[in-house]
């Protein structure tokens, strides 16, 4: 009840209320105020008295309605939020808390504006003509071709003592001749001429897939658009938080190493060991030019570097033998194998001024000169990208089942990735895909020329590894086939036995340590018997023949002599 209405109402004892109007005090008993005017003013006051509370009541009802609507909207939002979380939880039961938090809150970041910029591609520049002449001292036509009449030999006969894959003969030209065959200009990049990369200071997740801030969380729309080859393209390719990879972008590298990595090189060899997972293998059989012109880079994390220092393998120049050690801090993933995919697939971003690169996994030992490898698998084939096919499997579906059986990754994530590819049109490998010889690579060696189309291929391959599982064999054929459908480009998938000709595969560190431990345990559990000779007897110890198992025949010396003394024209191989 307002103060104005109190001034109009009479009290219960009937006392007169006085009203002040225009500075004059009036009462109901005043004779000069007519009855009609009194009734009119009173009714107007009462109308105002009733109108104001009605407005107030209407506003109250309106606020309550809005509150009810807001409550229902909040309830619907929370219900959808719970359903999304439940779906994500059922899709992958092994997400850690960080991944779960990102997957659960992607819709919040989708409401915020994104500030995305573009980083230019650093194309490798050819060195001055005099520098190139120092390497290519002779024309390749001046050399005879030692591999012109080389024929691939038949497979060797089976050996029960050696099961599994093995190497096969490969014809390499001499190192000097291989250097002379190096192309003087870069290969043509079909379709794509200029490639740039997305840069976002604070990457935001807009869809409920895994991905990472390091990869920039590309949406499905952006992913699909990246397979549409154009003359100029901008794609996600890791390192999205900066335009200089390794400089506060995640996968951080010291400034001195970055400066070294930005120098021009015709050829580099690179590898990586994260989580102290492998033992560094030293290359062999390299020539003088290779030692002077081809740097070897090994990327390691802090755990691996500490192990190298503790074992006194790392010298004062940050080298272990021929390898220059590149320390990586602030690695983007908790999985060491996934961190290894960064240099493996994104070497063109880490080395912007390199023409050719050879990637080998940390467990491999290179035993052929890099120039000979490049000549055999790139230059001789007019190829820009080479990788060996898997020695046994050719089909992605079989590879997925083999990964699940071996526990390479959780089954839910593998099934999700394969189902996604099936919906996109992935089919089992068959002869209908020829001349494509396989859908499954043995991805431990990658031989590459750094041109826009190959850089795009490894960018998109990395994006699949970042979005789905770290098993890059599962995503290789999807990326390759999508690019081949747009432009005239192919991958040289050579035989795995040829790969085994130029690298030796060692065991991972954990297997080496396990084998060493088992050897020690067996030596302590079953020590060799000590021979004790009886001093009282001068007779030599009597050797007892070994016990024959059931079904074994007694040796017959006469029979052996008869076989050995066969006719002159016969021969026996033992």
UniProtKB/TrEMBL annotation:
TM spans (from-to): 64-84
InterPro entries: TOD1_MUCI70, TOD1_MUCI70_glycTrfase_dom
Residue ranges annotated for the TOD1/MUCI70 glycosyltransferase-like domain, each copy included: 195-508
Residue ranges, compositional bias (Basic residues): 541-563
Domain of life, source organism: Eukaryota
Keywords, sorted A to Z: Membrane, Transmembrane, Transmembrane helix
Region called Disordered, residue ranges: 526-574
Pfam families documented for this protein: TOD1_MUCI70 (PF04765)
Start-end of Low complexity biased regions: 564-574
Name this protein carries in UniProt: TOD1/MUCI70 glycosyltransferase-like domain-containing protein
Source organism per UniProt: Solanum stoloniferum
């Amino acid at each position: 009840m307002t103060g104005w209405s109190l001034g109009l109402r009479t009290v219960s004892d009937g006392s007169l209320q006085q009203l002040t109007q225009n500075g004059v005090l009036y009462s109901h008993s005043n004779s000069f105020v007519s009855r009609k005017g009194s009734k009119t003013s009173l009714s107007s006051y009462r109308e105002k008295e009733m109108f104001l509370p009605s407005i107030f009541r209407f506003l109250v009802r309106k606020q309550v309605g809005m509150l009810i609507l807001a409550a229902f909207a909040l309830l619907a939002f929370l219900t959808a939020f719970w359903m999304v979380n439940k779906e994500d939880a059922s899709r992958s039961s092994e997400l850690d808390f960080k991944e779960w938090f990102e997957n659960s809150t992607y819709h919040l970041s989708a409401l915020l504006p994104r500030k995305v910029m573009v980083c230019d591609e650093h194309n490798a520049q050819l060195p001055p003509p005099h520098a190139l002449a120092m390497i290519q001292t002779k024309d390749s036509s001046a050399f005879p071709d030692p591999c012109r009449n080389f024929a691939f030999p038949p497979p060797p006969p089976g050996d029960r003592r050696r099961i599994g894959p093995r190497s096969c003969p490969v014809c390499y030209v001499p190192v000097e001749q291989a250097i002379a065959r190096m192309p003087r200009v870069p290969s043509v990049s079909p379709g794509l001429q200029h490639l740039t990369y997305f840069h976002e200071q604070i990457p935001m997740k807009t869809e409920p897939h895994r991905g990472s801030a390091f990869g920039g969380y590309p949406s499905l729309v952006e992913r699909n658009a990246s397979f549409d080859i154009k003359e100029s393209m901008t794609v996600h390719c890791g390192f999205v938080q900066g335009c200089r990879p390794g400089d506060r972008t995640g996968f951080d590298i010291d400034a001195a190493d970055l400066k070294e990595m930005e120098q021009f090189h015709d050829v580099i060899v690179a590898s990586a060991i994260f989580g102290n997972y492998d033992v560094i293998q030293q290359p062999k059989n390299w020539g003088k030019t290779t030692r002077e012109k081809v740097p070897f880079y090994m990327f390691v994390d802090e755990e691996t570097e500490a192990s190298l220092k503790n074992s006194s393998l790392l010298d004062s120049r940050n080298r272990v033998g021929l390898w220059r050690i590149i320390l990586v801090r602030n690695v983007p993933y908790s999985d060491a194998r996934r961190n290894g995919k960064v240099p493996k697939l994104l070497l063109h971003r880490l080395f912007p001024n390199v023409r050719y690169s050879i990637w080998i996994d940390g467990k491999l030992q290179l035993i052929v000169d890099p120039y000979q490898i490049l000549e055999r698998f790139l230059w001789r084939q007019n190829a820009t990208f080479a990788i060996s096919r898997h020695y046994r499997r050719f089909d992605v579906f079989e590879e997925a089942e083999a990964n699940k059986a071996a526990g390479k990754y959780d089954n839910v994530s593998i099934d999700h990735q394969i189902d996604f590819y099936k919906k996109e049109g992935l089919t089992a490998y068959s002869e209908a895909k020829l001349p494509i010889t396989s859908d499954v690579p043995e991805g431990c060696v990658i031989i590459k020329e750094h041109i826009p189309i190959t850089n795009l291929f490894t960018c998109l391959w990395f994006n699949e590894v970042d979005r789905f599982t770290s098993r890059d064999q599962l995503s290789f054929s999807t990326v390759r086939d999508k690019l081949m459908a747009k432009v005239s480009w192919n991958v040289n998938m050579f035989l795995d036995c040829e790969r085994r000709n130029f690298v030796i595969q060692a065991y991972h560190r954990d297997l080496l340590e396990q084998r060493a431990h088992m050897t020690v345990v067996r030596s302590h559990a079953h020590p060799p018997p000590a021979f004790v000779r009886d001093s009282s007897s001068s007779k030599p110890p009597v050797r007892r023949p070994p016990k024959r198992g059931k079904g074994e025949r007694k040796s017959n010396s006469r029979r052996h002599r008869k076989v050995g003394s066969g006719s002159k024209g016969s021969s026996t191989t033992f």
